[in-house]
């Protein structure tokens, strides 16, 4: 397996039951691909710096379901754009598919760059990127691109799982 071709993931969305904040229909095979900019030797500090750069560039950009630009972006779109532009890693586009890749880890094992997932409704999900010290980067419905605390009164009871890419 090469850095350019890590894995193939085939998943079919089953209607609205798999809805998430980035729930756009994905009917094709999803390919996880690493671009040359991403090196496994990146230290935590380098990844953290890149994530804060991304936050500075996108801070306050409003939430828009299915959005992928500074005119509006959803949670999985922001994760998708951030990993591609800052780390050179091409992730699936939807929250559902993003939750299926990588390795599931315990909350106590979180490191900078891990994905954190939340159950925000019966079938809806939310995703963000863990930064440090119990903080994560994501797109809020109210604040747009922002940083929140995992132990926040809203997020703490909705925490679902974490994934390391």
Could you characterize the architecture of this molecule?
There is one protein chain. The chain is an alpha+beta fold and 165 residues long. It has a single domain, classed as endopeptidase domain like (from Nostoc punctiforme) (endopeptidase fold (from Nostoc punctiforme), Alpha-Beta Complex), CATH 3.90.1720. Helix content is 19%, strand content 29%. The chain contains three helices and eleven strands; from the N terminus they run E-E-H-E-E-H-E-H-E-E-E-E-E-E. It has a six-stranded antiparallel sheet with strand order 6-11-7-8-9-10. A hairpin with a 5-residue loop joins strand 7 and strand 8. It starts with 6 loop residues before the first strand and ends with a strand. Belongs to the peptidase C40 family. This is Probable lipoprotein NlpC.
Tell me briefly what this model is.
The chain has helices at 44-58, 75-87, 95-98, and strands at 7-9, 30-34, 68-69, 72-73, 89-90, 103-105, 115-119, 125-132, 135-140, 144-149, 159-164. With 165 residues, the protein is an alpha+beta fold.
- The residue ranges in which pLDDT falls below 50 over 5 or more consecutive positions are 1-19, 22-31, 33-41
* Average of pLDDT: 82
SSE order: EEHEEHEHEEEEEE
Overall shape: globular
What's the number of structural domains? 1
In the CATH scheme, the class would be: Alpha Beta
In DSSP terms, counting alpha (H) and pi (I) runs of 4 or more, how many helices? 3
Radius of gyration: 15 Å
Give the DSSP E fraction (strand runs of 2 or more residues): 25-35%
From the 3D coordinates, which CATH architecture would you assign? Alpha-Beta Complex
CATH superfamily: endopeptidase domain like (from Nostoc punctiforme)
Helix % is 10-25%
Largest sheet descriptor = 6 strands, antiparallel
The third-level CATH topology is endopeptidase fold (from Nostoc punctiforme)
């Amino acid at each position: 397996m090469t850095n350019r071709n890590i894995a193939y993931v085939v998943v079919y969305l089953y209607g609205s039951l798999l809805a998430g904040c980035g729930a756009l229909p994905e009917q094709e095979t999803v390919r996880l691909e690493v671009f040359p900019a991403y090196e496994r030797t990146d230290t935590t500090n380098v990844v953290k710096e890149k994530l804060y750069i991304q936050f500075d560039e996108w801070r306050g950009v409003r939430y828009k379901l299915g959005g992928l630009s500074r005119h509006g972006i959803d949670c999985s779109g922001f994760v998708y754009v951030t990993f591609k532009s800052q780390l050179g890693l091409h992730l699936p586009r939807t929250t559902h598919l993003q939750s299926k890749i990588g390795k599931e880890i315990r909350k106590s094992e979180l490191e900078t760059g891990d994905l954190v997932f939340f159950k925000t409704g019966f079938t809806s999900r939310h995703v963000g990127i863990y930064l440090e010290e119990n903080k994560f980067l994501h797109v809020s419905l109210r604040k747009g691109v922002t940083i929140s605390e995992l132990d926040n009164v809203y997020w703490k009871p909705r925490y679902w799982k974490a994934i390391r890419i």
